[in-house]
Amino acid sequence: MAALVLIAEDDVQIAEILQAYLIREGFRTVHARDGKVALDLHRSLKPDIVLADVTMPRLDGWEVLAEIQRRGHTPVIMITALDQDVDRLQALRIGADDYIVKPFNPIEVVARAKAVLRRAGLSQAGPMIRVGDLTLDLDSYQARIEKDGVATPLSLTLTEFRLLVHLARTPSKAFTRGELVDACLPGSDALDRTVDSHLSKLRKKLEQSGGEGMLVSIRGIGYRLAVEP
């Protein structure tokens, strides 16, 4: 199972950017718009890592960090516009594992989240996804279709692999083209026809390897993976 990241951030746009980049790298995410909801989700979902803003409604990031530390050892990265040394020192004193100042590069946030998880002895994602005849190795970026004891590898581009992983995480769910762009091509100027082109090539590769009917177009919506979990 992929690692779960709790994003405690009242700015919806920032949260959506972080979610897009994290999902693209194999994480699961959940978003809380205030500190109270963040602590409720932390208790119920037990995330593997928390990304927390400081200036949030109801409970601020310091209160969230302190309570998470009281409950156990969930790693926490503070992400905030507060750039003074005193703020950084306060975060570390309370128990934060890292401190990132806004504005930030989301790629750097993901890299630092992975580093914190490694230091905590955790993995950012489970190494394998298996749905139906399809197996995806998230560590080696390899995909294969296994039928009747015979494994046929798929030669995929990085974008094709990311699209297939995203579809396979929720088999039978129909994804819009916009959702696939946000999850697999964030920060790009990709259009619907770009997604269609990638998925057309992916479908052809699946069919050539024995995955006929695996990738389905949903008229007026987008695409889904037609396999049993």
What would your notes on this structure say?
With 229 residues, the protein is α/β, with parallel strands linked by helices. It folds into 2 domains: 4-119, Rossmann fold (3-Layer(aba) Sandwich); 128-225, Arc Repressor Mutant, subunit A. The protein has helices spanning 12-24, 35-45, 61-71, 85-94, 106-119, 158-169, 177-184, 192-208; strands at residues 4-8, 28-32, 49-52, 76-80, 98-101, 128-131, 134-137, 142-147, 150-154, 175-176, 215-218, 222-225. The strands form 3 sheets. It has a 5-stranded parallel sheet, sandwiched between helices. Strands 6-7-8-9 form a 4-stranded antiparallel sheet, covered by helices on one side. The protein is elongated, with a radius of gyration of 19 Å. The model has no long low-confidence stretch (mean pLDDT 87).
Write a concise synopsis of the structure shown.
Helices cover 42% and strands 23% of the residues.
CATH topology (level 3) name of the largest domain? Rossmann fold
Succession of helices and strands: EHEHEHEHEHEEEEHEHHEE
Structural class estimated from helices and strands: alpha/beta
The number of helical elements comes to 8
Mean pLDDT, all residues? 87
Total beta strand runs: 12
Number of domains: 2
Which regions have little confidence, pLDDT < 50, spanning 5+ residues?
none
CATH class of the largest domain: Alpha Beta
CATH H level of the largest domain: which superfamily?
Response regulator
Order the strands across the largest sheet as they lie in space.
2-1-3-4-5
Shape: elongated
Second rung of CATH, namely the architecture of the largest domain: 3-Layer(aba) Sandwich
Give the termini separation: 13 Å
- Give the fraction of residues assigned to helices: 40-55%
What does the largest sheet look like?
A: 5 strands, parallel
Quaternary class: single chain
> What is Rg?
19 Å
Share of β-strand residues: 15-25%
